[in-house]
Write a structure and sequence with these properties.
Keywords: Membrane, Signal, Transmembrane, Transmembrane helix. The chain has about 300 residues and is an alpha+beta fold. It is built from two helices and 21 strands.
């Protein structure tokens, strides 16, 4: 019987027993919603093809999507972060069902490596859900992640492929972890975020897990912000000054043109006053000639200057 099982495993290609791939065990999502599942792999698989396979047994499962061949239906997508060595599977608009899936990696020297997980799709509220799977915070700040649940079990906050915080408080990847539990919901607060806090986390409640991706960014420098504002202000002043100078030149040019035109008109018009020449009027009287004497002429000269 044992020999038969070993032969079966060999032919079906079921591996993953050596934990070269790590992922969730079971996740829950409401029908019509989306959920992402991370799969952590070892460094030797960095440049290998990764894919999602659906089925109870890996030997006869159906490949839904691959890193070198996307899914045409749009119900599945896959992305590979070679730096973090994590490929992410995204499920869109799933129907109501409990289905087994496999995080799988192609191998050139033997059977493919794979790790199984279960996806539970419900009509009502999932037994474990989160407000947002993608969380972003700044270095040194705090972020609070809100979960809802209707399942019993202890809560754990784990870094995928790393350790876990199993109590109400603890430290993980340089950040302080605080878990506050209420009747139907609970929060996980990460305080004092650091750059190395970025990555995929798993929140566990009972037999369910919910993946959450945290991204930590550097806060923009305040001095840089003020420098930008000052630069914009100087630019505005330069623009206003340039426009004012252009307007001043335009007005001055117009005034000069009008003055020159007026001067030309005055040069072309006749003189307003021309002095008249002096005129001499002569009154001549004729007298009767006397015998043997020449005619006498009496001249009355008057000079008038007009």
């Amino acid at each position: 019987m044992a020999l038969h099982l070993s032969v079966l495993l060999l032919f079906t290609g079921v591996t993953g027993i050596d934990c070269t791939i790590q992922t969730v065990s079971k996740v829950s999502v409401k029908a019509g919603r989306s959920i992402s599942v991370p799969c952590l792999y070892e460094s030797q698989y960095t440049h290998h093809v990764k894919y999602l396979c659906r089925g109870d047994h890996f030997g006869n499962c159906y490949t839904e999507v691959k890193t070198n061949q996307q899914n045409s239906s749009g119900k599945f997508s896959i992305s590979d972060d070679k730096h973090q060595r994590i490929f992410t599977l995204t499920f869109n608009n799933q129907s109501v069902d409990d289905t087994n899936y496999w995080c799988a990696v192609e191998r050139n020297d033997g059977p493919h490596d794979a790790k199984r997980f279960q996806l539970s799709v419900t009509r009502g509220s999932p037994q474990l859900s989160v407000d947002h799977q993608e969380i972003t915070g700044f270095n040194g700040d705090d972020v609070t992640i809100h979960f809802k649940y209707n399942i019993s079990g202890k809560i754990q906050w784990c870094r995928l492929g790393w350790s876990c915080v199993k109590e109400q408080s603890g430290s993980l990847n340089g950040a302080r972890v605080t878990i506050n539990v209420n009747v139907t919901d609970f929060t996980v607060t990460l305080s004092g975020l650091r750059t190395e806090s970025s990555g995929w986390y798993l929140c566990t409640k009972g037999d369910l897990q919910m993946p959450v991706h945290v991204t930590v960014k550097e806060r923009p420098s305040t001095s840089k912000y003020h420098t930008t504002k000052y630069y914009v202000s100087i630019s505005s002043l330069i623009i206003i000054g340039t426009l004012s100078l252009a307007l001043l030149i335009l007005v001055a040019s117009f005034i000069w043109f009008m003055w020159r035109r007026h001067k030309q008109r005055n040069a072309q018009s006749p003189a307003a006053t021309v002095p008249e020449e002096e005129v001499t009027y002569i009154n001549v009287k004729r007298t009767r000639k006397t015998p043997h004497k020449a005619d006498a002429v009496n001249v009355d000269v008057s000079t008038l200057a007009l």
